[in-house]
Amino acid sequence: MVGQSGFKKALTVSVFLGPSLLALLAFSIGPMLGTVWVSFQEWNLIRDAEFIGLENYRELWGDDDFRRALLNTLYYLVGYLPLVIIGGLGLALLVNSKFKGVAMFRAMYFLPVVTSWVVVALLWKWLLNPNDGVVNWALGLVGIDGPGWWTDPTWAMPSIILASAWKDLGFVMIILLAGLQSIDESLYEAAKIDGAGPWRRLRSITVPMLTPSLFFVVVISLINGFQVFDQVWVMTNGGPVGSSTVVVEQIVKNTFTFGRAGYASAMSVVLFVIILIVTALQMRMQKRWVFYG
Amino acid sequence: MRKLRIVGRYVVMSLCAAAMIGPFVWMVLAALKTDADIRAVPPTILPDPITGENFSRVTDAFDFWRFTANSVGIAIASTILQLVTATSAAYAFARIEFRGRNALFGLYLATMMIPLQVVIVPLFIEMRNLGLVDSYAGLLLPTIVSSFGTFLMRQAFLGLPTELDEAAFIDGANHFQVFTKVLLPLVKPALATFAVFAFMSTWNSFLWPLVITQASDRHVTLPVGLSRLNGRFGTDWNVVMAGSVISIVPIVAFYLVTQRWVIRSVAFTGMK
User: Fold this and answer.
1) In degrees, to the nearest 5, what angle opens at C-alpha A154 toward C-alphas A149 and A156?
2) Which ipTM value was assigned to this complex?
3) Which of A17, B239, B245, B268 has the least CB density, counted as fewest CB within 10 Å?
4) Are A260 and A44 in contact (CB under 8 A)?
5) Which positions, given as ranges, span the membrane (chain A) (predicted)?
6) What pTM, to 2 d.p., does this model score?
7) If pLDDT is split at 50, 70 and 90, which confidence band does B116 have?
8) CA angle, B151 as apex, B150 and B153 as ends, to 5°?
């Protein structure tokens, strides 16, 4: 402002920025640096920490549990992403036009999104209960012998994927719906005049115009997917026999169960680097497929 | 033909609705079933007789009302603090020119890339050193700032013309008055959007409350309390479901009241 002294301005800026900047430093940036620091230590949170350099990382490299957790996290993403993106797109297309009751349907599809992960995980753990769960009972009615779901190593991760996709479908739907509604109606009119059928219109107009929203959903889902934890913790606790263990669950167990804070921090650093690389790759790839009209 | 398509659409939508709502209905029905009923094979659909006993078993098993009060208190406190810290920072980024502003804002954006999961160990150690493990402050502090919210509110401020501020400054107002009296009232929709987000995310958060409250039962929040129920009543699904029902009632009520708003705001933030 005119005539304002440097000191007064600095004071004003610090009053406005101070609280959030301090909190960010204390609870995000500081701990991030802390994670790197702790990752070089051998530390059980009780004794004095001992500096061991890159030893934790070297151990991680040969750790079968961690490798399994990484692969399972990938497995989760590979199963979960197509399910929510395609399912969410389907729902969005379904509720895109104006007709009676559409707001109610949107609200219903969105309901799982506002529910906590713990409740969703508990609910699905029960629905997918191998013995008296309703899903296996319903499958039995049509002559299918339902699997052991989360008690069976083969089916534990699919169970988690199923519950997760169910919860997040509504979120993807809403983001894509917003994208759909910003598409100019006249594009469709023109295509209709040119004789393009519904399938052709979907492929040539809707999907390309929707790519920015799709991009956003994919980026967010991937970042969140790497951090999958709550539903694993509640539904399977990583089991049976490690078949659904994931990275964050390994971090929590190593810190609080095995007393290996340094080792867990090394895992955190690896996780962060992976998220960073994947996000950066996507940013670069977006030129290839994202269409900004 | 056209009519058939409309009917077809409603059928598909209703099937999808059944898939999304059905599990919740099943949950509520289960919460009302007796022990014998819940174990019946094949499963009974309607509870017969209807019992309210599961709810009292939940409230007896844990200090359920305390957990609820903890959840409500933390969610409200966190929402208010996030609104204060994020809007004031957003104001500085949108309306005050100072050296290093862009770099600093870049730093805020970068922290969006740092998930809690990655910093959980040092954060826990920090809280322990501050003597805040198993305390309300320890539960609350890491949630009081949101760089996403700062970003959102900055966008809202940038959408307002600077002539507003200039006119106020000529009338002798200072930054604080411009912020509270002129700009804040004009960004109410963005504030509401952000408040809804902040409340829901704190209400539903699990990992941090799980880690920071493990020493005792005093500061446990609903999701953590529920997950403990899971171990204790692993096979009594009616009790677990009763607990789940109690825990989603507030957030679902909140959602039903603000539903149009929530959906629009999520869509809005997704577009960026």
Assistant:
1) 45
2) 0.88
3) B268
4) yes
5) 21-40, 74-95, 107-127, 155-178, 209-229, 261-281
6) 0.89
7) confident
8) 65
